[in-house]
Amino acid sequence: MSTGAANRTIWDDACLAAAVVAVAPHAVGGIVLRARAGPVRDAWLDLLKSLMGPTKPLRRLPLNVGDDRLLGGLDLSATLAQGRPVAERGLLADANGGVLVIPSAERLDGGRTARIVRTIDYGRVEMERDGLSAKLPARFGVVAFDEGAEPDETAPTALKDRLAIWLMLDGLSLRDTSIAPDWPSRVASARATLANSDADPNLATLFCEAGAALGIGSIRAPIQALAVARVLAALDGRSMAATGDAEIAARLVLGPRATRLPSEETPDEENGPEPEPQQAAAPETTDPGGEDTSPEQALSPDDLELVLAAAQAAIPALILADLAQQRALGRAPPSQGKAGANQASKLRGRPAGVRRGEPRNGNVLSLIETLRAAAPMQLIRQRLRGGPHLLADGRQRIEIRADDFRIARFKQKTSSTTIFVVDASGSSALHRLAEAKGAVEIILSECYVRRDSVALIAFRGTTAETLLPPTRSLTRAQRSLAGLPGGGGTPLATAIDSAMQLAAAQKQKGISPTVVVLTDGKANIDRAGKPGRRAAMADAHTVAEGFRGLGINALLIDTSPRRNAEAEALATVMGARYLPLPHADSTRLSQAVFAARRDTDERSGSRT
Amino acid sequence: MPAIFPFSAIVGQDEMKLALLIAAIDQSVGGVLVFGDRGTGKSTTVRALAALLPPMPVVGGCRFNCAPGTGCTHTQGAETAATAPVPVVDLPLGATEDRVVGALDLERALVHGQKAFEPGLLARAHRGFLYIDEVNLLEDHLVDLLLDVAASGENVVEREGLSVRHPAKFVLVGTGNPEEGELRPQLLDRFGMSVEVRTPEDLKTRIEVVRRRDDFERNPDVFNARFADDEQRLRNHIVAARERVPGIPTSDHALERAAQLCSDVGTDGLRGELTLVRAARAVAALEGASEIDDAHLRRVAPMALRHRLRRTPLSSPDSGARVERAVADLFGGSGERLVI
After folding, report:
1. Sorting pLDDT into bands at 50, 70 and 90, what band is A239?
2. A3-64+90-179: which CATH number, 3.40.50.10420, 3.20.20.450, 3.10.450.50, 3.40.50.300?
């Protein structure tokens, strides 16, 4: 198939997807479109708009939207003008019955994601804000434009999980979009048909089995595939979904979620090379037929094959190659669910609500919130005074008391990240690696209590690898540390270099980094990745000097069996505290880390 | 009001259901923390529980859900008897503090210039459940406030010239996803029980989940009618169990076993033992037993203790397995999983 033809097929699917969303936005949840801003995306959005019809709302979510606009709240100016509380609806309630468009969805943070996701699940907004309490219907579909540059930079998993259709529009040109279907009437009649559609009872089974064969963990996927199949049938004027609908639904919903390829054998015999921990893929439950599922079990194996083939066609070529490779290597696919971009924006000193307090000691007065607090008291205060307080020109003065002062609260800026750089080379013999892991464990538990982020860099062979980008999730830290293998050369220079870059990046975000290096200091791989002790040590020292220049606080834990001059010298060059592990019990370890961190705090303190 | 998925129609998730039933039978066991995968029906289950519980007697007209005969001072004149559904109050993310604790009644202040207290979510949740989805994303100052009230059972409001105190005893139910960040240990400890839920992996179960969800969404009334008998049966069970709880003694044997178990798995503080015994009593009551035996303790041990283990970051994330091993060691046997 030529690229042009393939692109037109993608566009056809995109058109169909727009129609599906337009018919039943809330039932199908919506769509994740991997597409940069541009004419193709605009063309698609225009199509969706025309299919939705003029009466259905289409609201765009500003990425940095505040709770007052998102969920709604007190309309301050209207309240002051009318002298009674006036509620302002938020975006989510405004989108009821229509579609919420989220541009740059990959940058949506955890808090906003959680609010949106909850509204989707409940089908309504629960506003408990500014003295107002309301439950407003909010049944909408979401169109998430995912503009991530890297493959793993994507919209939040919690959101994606709820949106049935995943499509890639990247790579299409405007030419491919020339044919836009004229379906508004079809959409309108499909809405009517859908209201009394029948389900083919086999479809649920079909999608569950297909999902299992494709390694899809979420149970929402088959439910969504079912909803999409039904809408597709309705678009065709039928009240019952057929195999053809199931194929398309599998292509739109299941294919893009696949984490593995269905094995060539029939799906109930795949204990072969698959390392998947879910033995569940095999429906070999021995009890003969659950009570009410057995009569409809008459699912033809052909249907499953058709659906699987359709789904497979939708797995993008890149991912397909990746999956095939993973299979060849016998590896499990990387887990989804990175909080990714969330972390950064959450910490950048973003306003986090207000509280009562006086605007001193560096606290910032929040004027709007102060007015909001004063507004309801106006009448009461006037009464106490015996009449409104008039200014010389006859205008009425707003009475504000100290009690009304609200100060803005910001998310802590002083949070810190501890970056572990663990030597997993052969020279740090394996039992030493176990001890190093033990040391990391002790420090990790401190970080856990302090809600610090941790990151993990491991070095062995010729490279240093960031196993864990900064995270607060202990679970993830545990996993990546537990799976750390040992052996190979000691590329110390490369390791310090990686740590330096990561630390600098953290600093830029206003987070203070502390680097903890666990090594025996015996470098034998130089920066270029070539073996040789002399060059390797020289490189390590050069990088270490650069490290000291950045003024990042560091601790070097010497993992050699006894105090080792090379490691101690390296620590000095790096400007790091030195601690030989043989002498380190848990108390001393945490004291050392705290001392290093105190250095950090002092430094950042003296600068501001 | 949209239709609510019936409790008895929820497929699997036995541990979560049991924990919620225990909390419904004996409030003093404490809150429930539900950690787990997305799409496992966490919030569906909690809302289903609300619909399942029998209505509770209240003082007519009292805005604080006071029980009759507890010296309610929130109404004028003589107490009148009434019933109200057990409240399950959602604390949505983005709620402001004034709505959580209660504040000046805006309408009355603005229109009539009167100072009056408008109860908040804490008042509404009194004698019921306070449900927080994604509890790990809740702002810290709200968390502190909640912990304070949950511990004292009373909400004290001093703001905007108002000075109000009212009872606020509720069962805290929180959900979260461990991948999104950890909970502070102080918060963890406040929950009586914690359960971990997973997406069912067994194909047959998954098909049943999808079917029921689909049936419900297409025709909620028909679906709910199908489960009406089951719901009523379960409701009767709960009512009977509540009546039985006070009559089930705390035997020395049960106390000893609980203490032993807690010291074996290494939990801090007495809270664990207390929760263990109370939860076991609730299970005994649910089963119609007249005393707490080992089977009851065994069944609740993982949910009562797993979040109280002294955590070292590298211990297995599934601390439930650790508890189960200790249970098996103490009570003998293979520690087979028990289900409702």
Report:
1. confident
2. 3.40.50.300
Tens of pLDDT along B186-216? Answer: 677 778 899 988 888 888 888 999 889 888 9
- Is residue B41 a contact partner of residue B34, using CB atoms and an 8 Å limit? no
* pLDDT in the model for residue B245: 93
Query: Mean pLDDT lowest for which of A520-529, B108-117, B164-173?
Result: B108-117
Judged on CB neighbours under 10 Å (0-12, 13-18, 19+), A317 is exposed
Q: Identify the architecture of domain B244-331 in CATH.
A: Orthogonal Bundle (1.10)
| pLDDT tens per residue, range A408-461 | 766 544 577 888 888 888 766 565 677 777 777 777 777 766 667 888 888 888
B218 touches chain A (CB under 8 A): yes
Which of A109, A128, A135, A398 is the mutation pick for testing B, counting most B CBs within 10 A? Answer: A128
- Determine the pLDDT at residue A551: 78
Tell me which H or E stretch contains A210: helix A201-213
Q: What distance in Å separates the CA atoms of residue B27 and residue B20, rounded to the nearest whole number?
A: 10
Give catalytic residues of B, as residue numbers. 271
> Looking at domain A416-607, which CATH architecture does it have?
3-Layer(aba) Sandwich (3.40)
> Where exactly are the structural domains of chain A?
3-64+90-179, 196-263+299-331, 352-410, 416-607
The sign of the dihedral angle between the CA atoms of A548, A554, A559, A560 is positive
Interface of A with B in 365-384 (CB under 8 A): 373, 375-380, 382-383
Does residue A278 carry a pLDDT above 50? Answer: no
Interface pTM, i.e. ipTM = 0.79
Measured in whole angstroms, the distance separating CA A439 from the mean position of its chain's CA atoms is 30
CA distance A499 to A492: 11
Band of the pLDDT at A284, cuts 50, 70, 90? very low
Residue A323 pLDDT greater than 60, yes or no:
no
Chain A: closest CA distance from residue B11 (Å): 12
Nearest to B211 among A204, A376, A474 (CB): A204
**B333: amino acid identity, one letter:** G
- Judge whether B209 is closer than 8 Å to chain A, CB to CB: yes
Do A3-64+90-179 and A416-607 show the same overall fold? Answer: yes
**Strands A553-558 and B88-90: what pairing?**
unpaired
**Cα–Cα distance between A255 and A166 in angstroms, integer?**
9
C-alpha triplet A583, A589, A593: angle, nearest 5°: 140
Q: Do B133 and A158 touch (CB under 8 A)?
A: no
**What is the average per-residue pLDDT within B175-185?**
68
Q: Which residues in A lie closer than 8 A to residue B105 (C-beta atoms)? A: 131
CATH topology assigned to domain B7-197: Rossmann fold (3.40.50)
Shortest distance between the Cα of A470 and any Cα of chain B, in A, equals 12
Q: Where in chain B is CATH 1.10.8.80?
A: 244-331
User: Is residue B56 pLDDT above 60, yes or no?
Assistant: yes
- pLDDT higher than 60, residue A279: no
| Sign of the alpha-carbon torsion through A314, A317, A321, A323 | negative
User: Bigger pLDDT: B125 or A579?
Assistant: B125
Count CB neighbours of B235 within 10 A. 16
Out of A118, A197, A283, whose CB is closest to B203? A283
Hey, is the C-beta of A388 within 8 angstroms of any chain B C-beta? no
Q: Please name which of B167, B72, B79 lies closest in space to residue B124, comparing C-alpha atoms.
A: B167
Chain B residue numbers with beta carbons less than 8 Å from the beta carbon of A114 are 93, 133-134, 137
